[in-house]
Amino acid sequence: MQKQLKKLWTELRGRLLGATQPLTEPVLVFERFRRVLNSNNQSLEIIADLGEKLGGGYIFDRHYIETGVERLRGTVKASIDGLNELCNYRYEDLYNVYDRLTGELELLLAGREDRKGPQILALDVIHFLDWEIVGGKGARLAEMRQDPFLQVPDGFVITTKAYHDLIDHNDLRPMLDTFEKLLADTGAESSILEEERRKLVREILQADPPPKLLDTLETAIETLAERAGGPFSLAVRSSAQEEDMDFSFAGQFRSILNVKAKVEEVYHAYLKVVASLFSMEAVSYFRLVLPNERQMSIAAVCQRMINARSSGVAFSVDTMAPDNETMVIVGAWGQGDAIVEGHIPTDTFIMNKDDLPVILERTVVSKPQGRYQAETGGLETKKIEPSLREQACLNDAELLLLSRQVKHLELYYKRPQDVEWSVDESGNLYILQARPLIIAEGALQNRSLPEALADYECIVAGKGRIAQQGIGAGPVRIVNGPADLLDFPDGAVLVSRLDSSHFVKVMKRAAAIVTEVGTPVSHMATLCREMRVPCLVNVENILSLLANGDEITVDAEDRMIYRGRVKELLVYSSTATMEVGYSYEFRLLRRLLKKVATLNLVDPLLQNFTVTGCLTYHDILRFVHETAVMELVSIGRDEGKLLHGHLARRMDLPIPAGILIVDIGGGLKEQAPDDGVKYTDITSIPFHAILQGMLFPGVWHLGGMKVGMRDLMSSMLSAPADTLDGRYSGHNIAIISKEYVNLCFRLGYHFNIIDAHCSKNERDNHIYFRFLGGATDITKRTRRAVMIASILEAFDFNVRVKGDMVVARCGNMMLKEMERTLDILGRLVGFTRQLDVRLDNDSIVEQYVEAFLYGNYSLVTDQPAVL
Amino acid sequence: MTENTLVRPRRLLVIDDEAIVGKRLLQVFGKMGFKVEVFDSPAPAMEAAARDPFDIVVTDLKMEGMDGMEVLTRVRQLNPATRVIIITGYAQSETAEEAFKLGVFDFIPKPFRLEQLKESILKALDELEQEDHVQ
């Protein structure tokens, strides 16, 4: 490939010596384009590689993460360099974006990411991966607020940024550094540590607010007040980065309840919460349990306090008997703080976990006291009036609702939950907190797990690839198309042939996902990892072994699928002390990937598709690719130069498509002729597949249309006449290599671009399709766009439509899938050529979509033309 | 795939200064029925090995105090039957060669798929079982 280009280049250079070299020289253009493509592919590979490690089937260390990021920095820069070379340095401001992002990544790697961002964030605007500044509890609450099935009190978070500002504003940084060093030093004298600790706590409790914090706090309180629509007080609770994770810091930090909704009071409550980070209990716990972790910081969640009539706790698994598959609800009158501490008598209810849970056991005790909000702030203990003491603190309807919500939470987070709840005077149920439930290993049964597993029938063993680790069980639900997703039952196992990103609609409710085809780097796999849905892909023939409704257990750690509900595995999974996804390296990698891999620039048709719209490395890569393709389309196609310079060859096809090929390496057989290249001479994998589709019988209608349409049709159908006159317009140009194609079609008034990379390496694979149609009126053109979009979505493209323009993408698929999809695209190109004049109404669109999807390409010629 | 269903559960020692490695392996091999002990530094690990030998040792190369090669040598001195597997993020062919000369059972560069380590450990198990039978 190099040789061919080099030869051409030397020839051309010889001719041009002495003259200035315009960047429009095709060879130069192709070479530079190829380089952009290469560095883009390398970058995407690294990103996919990093992402795959989050699935859980890998052991990796910090060194791996650092090396990956460093390599990525280099390849992304190379992409930007390449684009600028290609486009005559029109995109130098991409470097500003790049520099800023690279700086943010460095902060992340240095563990200082909790020092950036706003001081206060409302719960409703927080994204789950804002953990770095809102802490575990804050992130969880924010997420639950988005869930329409749950009611969570409104509030805001005072972030770790505020904490760092507080430290710096009060000159406490040196003291903090000293303390943290001592903490990490296992040989440090405990008396010295204790002295430093006390000093720090004293200083914090007297600290001045950093600039702007009080104003921002005031605004936040006012906003809450407006939404509350009545008097209220606040609960100020700690949200540390390590809290609620594997090593639960439950109870080590402080919660200040019933704080008046005034700035001064909230600020002082906040200071107490911050100081609790350095309480004696917290410090000894930290030393014992997280000896290697870097320093922690703390955020504080401020929520509207519920005037509780009853409160309590619910465990989605009975920790005393986990294989009973029951849940336990515990409660009393008033607020929940004493219940959580275990200080007062409580009612106990045991429920099963059916769709409509049944009360299995009810133990109502005498409840002489309860905790309530005190006038002056905080809580006080009050006597319960005698008539209520023996009454259950929850009625049946409330129990039912609560247990359904607990079950929902367990399914949502894919592991047992410890839930705090409150019911107010009006009977409204609120979820105050939900965190992973830690179950002691002693609760396990006597037999070893391998022994127990031998009792179950194994449907499939050791097949497939892990997209996301975990264990899930439930009834099979076979999904063949989008319709099957509409009534997807809660807790079912999704089984499908293809892996589609459309499955995201049910991921939160699915117990697990199994597909016959697919890769751990596909879009669906990435979504599974985000939602932590246990997922196995590429499990060949699994559909032939399962039927709808079959109960199965998917072990996506060991790649086993068992018939039936393997309780032992489920119990094992709920007792496993490590939530891998919460460990430090995982969180670091997740945060990094958020900064690197999240795609914001999804739609090239939108306003934000600009340099300033690039918020991540992936955005930059997407922008670079789109821009480079467009550049190639516009300047690489001066036919005169191409034909005169013998860079292009005409194709000889059974259909009048009028294609010129430029081979930039390995796209053609050695013996291919200089003129009249045949379909069989094509060695470019993607181009070959597209042609296969275009040549599919019936797709490219050669038959005559009805009289009256003929003129219009003939202009669309006719192939350009033979000529090597450089002026000719009307050829369609394909730039190809062994694994790449950039095909630009002008067919009549239609304008198609297909840009595809198709190789054994699924991470490099993508298909990009752009369609713009002309002729006929805007209504028909829009219908056509809708028709094309519907068809593409059925093939799992990501599609954007704007008026009569369609832009679609798909990628990261295995070679065979790619070829199949490209074939379909080829057929689509042929099929749509014919249809403009026929798109008289919207229902015809549906007919044609269906016809295409069923492979009925002749529908067009069968119908009489509408005049 | 051989399961670990012997009368005497096999003992596995893991030494790696990155806590996550030990945690993961504890989880995975505990599930398979091994008795797993995890250390983040070589010195206490060697003490434990001296008290009660392990069947299989999985160790990193670059650690504070003692590097993986030394661990390899010492462990095999204590108990020649122990199989040692080295996992490392700094893999180079010369290091691998040296390790094999010193009698390492397997040398796996990081990042690796857990499957790989599992297979390696199961192979080591097989060998140990053969030896047991012979004796």
How would you characterize the overall build of this protein?
With 867 residues, chain A is of the alpha+beta class. Chain A has 5 domains: 2-12 and 20-92 and 598-624, no CATH class; 114-304, Dna Ligase, domain 1 (2-Layer Sandwich), CATH 3.30.1490; 308-424, 2-Layer Sandwich (D-amino Acid Aminotransferase, Chain A, domain 1), CATH 3.30.470; 442-576, 3-Layer(bba) Sandwich (Glucose Oxidase, domain 1); 664-669 and 679-856, no CATH class. Chain A is 40% helix and 19% strand. Chain A is built from 28 helices and 30 strands. In chain A, strands 15-22-21-17-18-19-20-16 form an 8-stranded mixed beta sheet. An 8-stranded mixed beta sheet of chain A has the order 23-24-25-26-27-28-30-29. Chain A has a 6-stranded antiparallel beta sheet with strand order 10-9-8-7-13-14. In chain A, helix 25 (778-794) packs parallel to helix 27. The longest helix of chain A has 28 residues, at 26-53. Chain A starts with a helix and ends in a 5-residue tail after the last helix. Mean pLDDT of chain A is 83; it is low at 16-23, 703-729 and 863-867. With 135 residues, chain B is an alpha/beta fold. Chain B has a single domain (11-134), classed as 3-Layer(aba) Sandwich (Rossmann fold). Chain B contains 5 helices and 6 strands, in the order βαβαβαβαββα. Chain B has helices spanning 19-31, 42-51, 68-78, 93-101, 114-134; strands spanning 11-15, 35-39, 56-59, 83-88, 106-109, 112-113. Chain B has a 5-stranded parallel beta sheet with strand order 2-1-3-4-5, sandwiched between helices. The longest helix of chain B is centred in the last third of the chain and has 21 residues, at 114-134. Chain B is globular. Chain B starts with 10 loop residues before the first strand and ends with a helix. The model of chain B is unreliable at 1-5 (pLDDT under 50). At the A-B interface, strand 1, helix 3, helix 15 and helix 20 of A face helix 1, strand 6 and helix 5 of B.
